[in-house]
Design a protein that fits this description.
With 45 residues, the protein is mainly α. The chain contains one helix and no strands. The longest helix is centred in the middle third of the chain and has 41 residues, at 4-44. It is rod-shaped and about 40 Å long. The chain crosses the membrane at residues 20-43. Keywords: Membrane, Transmembrane, Transmembrane helix.
Length: 45
């Protein structure tokens, strides 16, 4: 039973980290796009 519990605990953070990593990447791309748009608007004036 002790061997089964660490396996479950190890697989859970891996799934959570991959999910949170995807969320971080999506947020980063969104913020990067927003920054590029803002800089373009400022530069075009």
């Amino acid at each position: 039973m002790q061997n089964v519990q660490p396996d479950n605990m190890n697989s859970m953070p891996l799934r959570q980290s991959s999910h949170s990593m995807g969320t971080i990447v999506i947020r980063f791309i969104g913020l990067l796009t927003l920054a590029v748009v803002v800089m373009t608007l400022i530069w075009s004036r």
